[in-house]
Structures are given as C-alpha cells and as structure tokens.
Amino acid sequence: MPDAGNHAELNLAWAICLFEGLRAGGLREVVISPGSRSTPLALAAFRHPHLHAKVVLDERAAAFMALGMARASGRPVALVATSGTAVTEWLPAVTEADLSRVPLLLLSADRPPELRQCGANQTIDQAGLFGSRTRFAMDLPLPDQGLLPAVSGFAARAMCAARWPLPGPAHLNCPFREPLVPAANGVFPSRSSPRVSRPCLLPDPDHLRQIAEGINGRPGLILCGPEQGAPLPAKEIAALAASLNVPILADPLSNLRCGPHERGNLIALYDACLRRPAFRAALRPEWVLRFGGPPVSKHLEQFLAGLPETRHIQTDPAGRWADPLHLTDELILGDPALVAEGLGVLAEPVETGWLVLWKAREEEVRAILERHSPAEARIVRELTRRLPAGSLLFSGNSLPIRQLDWFLEGRDQPLRILCNRGASGIDGNVATLLGMASVAEGQVVGLLGDLTLTHDLGALTESVGIRALILVLGNGGGAIFDHLPQSALAEQERLFLTPRPLDLEAVAKAFGLGYRATEPVGLPAALETMLPRPGLGLLHIRLNRELSLSEHRALWAELAK
Domain boundary residue among 332, 365, 398? Predict the structure, then answer.
C-alpha cells in the first residue's frame, strides 16, 4: 500500500484508468456535480482529452440531463457525484433510464471502508443502492497500484452491461481515501482499453416461418408503441404492413407517424377511431404484432384487452416482456428490422376490405375534427406543421403526450418525438429537455404542462449556452384529472389540479430566458418569432381550462356516435 502522501496521485491514476475503460466502450459525455470526495473522478473526466465534461450543480437535474443526452444522441453518458445523499438524487432518472432502456454510467464517490458503518459524516450505504434498476453494479476496491490495469476492465464490463443486451444504468461505487487533491495533472495512457462489440440479434427463421403461416391472409394489426432505447425501423415495418395489407397503429412515440417512409397503411388517429363502440365491436383481428413499448392510448389498451382470443405476438431485441395486459402468446427475440424484413419475405396479403374499414373510419374522424377542434388540437397541428425537418420534440407526460396521441396525424418530414414514458413521471422533464438540446443537432422543442415546468424550475439554472424552446400549456395545472374519474370528487381542485399562480414572465426574467405569451390563435406568429431565437425561450400558451374541457367533451361525444 502506498504511503498517504501518494494517495492523491494514485486516486487520480485510478480514476483515469476507469474513464479509459468507459471511453473504449463509447463514452463521450460526462455530467459532473461538484463535491469533495469525487475530486479524482471529476478531475479525470474534466482533464481527459477525449471526453466532454459538463458541470451541473444539482444532482437530480444532472441525472435527468444525462438521461436526455443519452436518449437524444444514442450514446451512453456518465454521471459523477460525491458521497452521501447526493447519490440518492439520481434515483428518479435511474428509474426512468432502466424502464426506457437508456445507458447511463453511474460513478458515485464513496468513503473508504474504515469510515463506513461508524457514523462518519456524509456517509451512507451506497453499494447496490439502485438495486434491480441497474444492469451491473460493483463496489470497487480502494485504488491500488497493482490493480490499475484491472480497473479499466471493471469499467469495460460496466459499459458492456449498460449497452447490451438490455440497455440501462450501470453503477460503479468508487471509494477514495484522502488526500484527494493531486499535485500533478495525471497521465492519460496512449494504449487503448478493451473494446467490446455488440451483436445484431438474428430472429429464429423457423419461428418467423411458423408465425407467417399463422398470420398470412388473415385480418390483423401491426401495433407500434414507444421506441425503447433505439428508433423503430420505420421503413421495414411499413414495408411489412404493405405486404400483409394491414393497418399500422402507430403511437406518437414510435416515430412512425412522421417521416419519408411509406405511410399508406398508417392509422394515426386510432384513439379517436376506437371511441365508437360499434366500430370496436365490429373489429375482430385474428392477430396483433407488436413492436416497441406499451402504447399511450387508453382506448387502444381497452380494445386490446377485449381480444383474449386474438393471437398476440410481441417482438423485442432484449427479451423484456412489455405486456401489462398479459396477452402475449409469442415473443420473437431479434432485431426489429430483421424481424420485419424476415416476415415481409414470407408475407401474403389479406383482402383489401380489412384495411379499407380502418381508412374509412379515420376519414370520418378527420371530418369530425374539422368541426370539433379543441384548442390543443390546433396547437399540435400548428407546432408539428412548423417545426423544421429533423427537429426533436420532447413531450411532457400527463396531457401533452395524450394530446399528441389524439391529434398528431403526421407529416412527410422527419420529426422525432421523445418522452420520459418509462416511469411516466413529470419530474425532471425540463432537465431532460436541456440535456437533449445540449447534444442534438437540429431544433429542439418541449411541450410541457405548467405543473411539469413548476416541478423542475431549478433545472433552468443550467440553460446557459443551450438553444431550445419550451411551449408551456397554461391550463391552471393538473388538467389531466379533468379526464379521469377524480374529476367527480369535491376535492378535485385542491388535491389533484393543485394550481400554482406562477408568473412565467418573471420566471423567464429571473433565469435570463426569452419569453412570449399568446392565446392559441396567436401561436403561428409566436412560433415564427420564437423558433429562430438563440438561447432558451419560454412560449406561454394561455388556455381556458373550462372551454377546453367543454370542447373535448363535445368531440368525444361526437366520436362515440
């Protein structure tokens, strides 16, 4: 064991080897929150010539920003924090990363073993802190000169587990003895650490052949839910649907509603279509083939729940069963693009009348929407029409993602829509958006409710140097509960709507943001002004909650006839 005077240099060398192992596995970005015990990790990341380190004061915001960066870029992102409760602030984002299949590397600094379980300051039990939410967790040994080559291997193992077969968080708990501040800058090795390749999982051809024999020539549905960790193969799924001559019911988070791929079989307004009981009753698909996660639409979920005799087939590249209805009869393990291509080669179409039924109903729905168009429908239409090709739209949970589901018809230009739909929380949404905007190449826009913004106001301190626009739907807060059974309770407003009289113009001024307020009718002009502006902007859309609720009820009643 080196003497105490060498601990600081050894700590830094250890941290450098750790980051070398992560870099070899694809790490490029590190989000650091300030702290003393994490000094070796922070210095190694910040001084590394091939890593980009960003400092975020609050650990909770840092974790959600890292989540946003990893989701938007498709690359793993590392987090660094000091010991104690700082690490626990990561939990909400780690939970979302687990359920959304986002690779995060969690590097928590810790006290040495002799300071644990003895009442030492700023010390909690951090080993295994995130439980089943991680793909890999290890309480590293104290830095040791003889183990320097091994620590890169520990990091490579963590990175491998975070990326494949089921992407998600990996946790390395890193104890350090004092002193923590080295005299030298540290030496970054020129030799590369172990590199790990990821396979492309081939589906079983015999299983595909057996499935094709059961679905060919029979009425069925292709259901595309939210993307999970990687974009769904829009071109291949569209080609499969065309070969089978069946509808694609595409969730907005599947990102099949927008783009240059063939959308002739796409049914975007299926939630509205299924609100007519007679239409639901007349449809008895013999099979449902699912790509992606569980859909947002409650009406689609209820429709599927009423099909216990239907053959339900799910495809997943990692083997996680996303089946809250417990209806899956078969799981195809394989890359989604290869599954779609393999089934497409074997496909035989059903009679055209099946697809015509769905298309005719969707045309009826479009006509009804022209007559009964709530303000939120017009907002979705104008926003998605005016965003440049290749833009990224981040949706808040509660009402915004449902409004996109209800009203987004699609467009030819690509538009990627993301949402923290793994755990469906409203926490950390602003920080997630800022993380996405920090790495995305095109326009980034958020569509958030006013309570969601209020929940994460602290993240706005990290907006310096970030260009994005946040549309805030000002409906008095908690308006989702107008559409839920809680709306009948006398305590609805105080317990569920929870309005907060927040002056958004004052908020924008306090954080140095651009600001504009408008009624829904003024949205086109407001977007024309705000979208090209540099920096972060708040576009406050003032909504009349009672009028909006009345418009929605009239629409739902008309659709149910």
Answer: 365
Phi–psi pair at 419, nearest 5 degrees: -160, 145
Total of domains in the chain: 3
Q: Compute the Cα dihedral for 28, 435, 13, 143 and give only its sign.
A: negative
Q: Examine the pLDDT at 108 and tell me if it is beyond 60.
A: yes
Phi, psi of 290 (to 5 degrees): -110, 135
The verdict on 308 and 380 lying in the same domain is no
**Residues 278 and 378 grouped into a single domain:** no
What is the rounded CA–CA span in Å between residue 257 and residue 266?
Answer: 7
d(CA 519, CA 400) in angstroms, rounded, equals 17
Distance from C-alpha of 212 to C-alpha of 206, rounded to nearest angstrom = 10
pLDDT at 483: 73
List pLDDT tens digits, range 161-208: 999 999 999 999 999 998 988 887 777 776 555 667 777 889 999 999
Q: pLDDT, tens digit, for every residue of 58-96?
A: 999 999 999 999 999 999 999 999 999 999 999 999 999
Residue that the structure tokens 């993307």 belong to: 227
Name the one residue in this structure whose structure tokens are 């915004």.
400
Q: Are residues 396 and 529 in the same domain?
A: yes
CA distance linking residue 71 with residue 489, whole number of Å: 38
Which one of 344, 365, 386 terminates a domain? 365
d(CA 101, CA 319): 12
**Residues 418, 312 share a domain:** no
- Which residue stretches of 351-503 are H helix? 353-371, 375-386, 399-407, 429-439, 450-455, 492
The CA distance from 219 to 263, in Å, is 19
The DSSP letter of residue 495 is I
Contact call for residues 18 and 150 (beta carbons, < 8 A): no
Query: Which contacts of 120-127 are long-range, i.e. CB under 8 A and separated by 24 or more positions?
Result: 122/37, 122/82, 122/83, 122/84, 123/83, 123/84, 124/83, 124/84, 124/85, 124/87, 124/88, 126/83, 126/87, 126/173, 127/173
φ and ψ of 346, to 5 deg: -95, 0
Q: Is residue 328 classed as helix, strand or coil in its secondary structure?
A: coil
| Residue of 414, 391, 418, 390 whose CA lies nearest to 404 | 418
Secondary structure of residue 378 in the 3-state scheme: helix
In a domain, 186, yes or no: no
Q: What's the angle, vertex CA 365, arms to CA 488 and CA 386, rounded to 5? A: 95
In the block, tokens 């479009």 appear at 366
CB-based contacts of 410, cutoff 8 Å, min separation 6: 257, 258, 263, 266, 268
Mapping DSSP to helix (H, G, I), strand (E, B) and coil, where does residue 187 land? coil
Q: For residues 438 and 428, what is the distance between their CA atoms, to the nearest angstrom?
A: 15
Contact present, 216 and 210 (Cβ < 8 Å): no
* Whether pTM exceeds 0.85: yes
pLDDT in tens, 475-497: 877 667 777 787 777 777 777 77
- Could you tell me the end-to-end alpha-carbon distance of the chain, in angstroms, rounded to an integer? 79
